[in-house]
Amino acid sequence: MAGMSTSDVVAPSAELARAQLAQAIAIKRQMADGPCPELAVQVAQVMIRCLRAGGKVIFFGNGGSAQDAGHLAAELMGRFAFDRPGLAAFSLPDATAAMTAIGNDYSYDEVFARQVLATVALTGAHGGKAAALAQIPVRVPADDTARVQEACLHLGHTICEMVEAALFARPS
Hints:
By secondary structure, the chain is mainly alpha-helical. It is 52% helix and 8% strand. Strand 3 (120-123), helix 5 and strand 4 form a beta-alpha-beta unit. The protein is globular.
């Protein structure tokens, strides 16, 4: 690559992989020992009440988290652990026309705010504005974006599993 000397590069190593896995495990251990399990139950209960009342579950995020939002919406629309009817869920970042129109006509600060009032926020340790606005802020005890995204996806899967199990009997 142009402009890079060989002293700037690091060869892939098992030690790096072990360190990253150990960091992810430590974060999930902190989550398991902290308030995250109880908060996940609260989130699942809100989603279950919403779906039983005929509402929809809405996911959103920025960057890689936007893709995770689509992934989690698909878990509910399709299936998570077993075959069952689809659940009403969607991902705001998948609505490209709405996002770009709102961003263009108003402000990109309002892309999601104009589409939904936040109830639940899965965030990093500090939470930012999203956690301050959320009724149920769930903070992952990490600042590294990749580790936060991994932990939020894991927590999202756990919540989807609880929702699915509460709404449908597992086929035998």
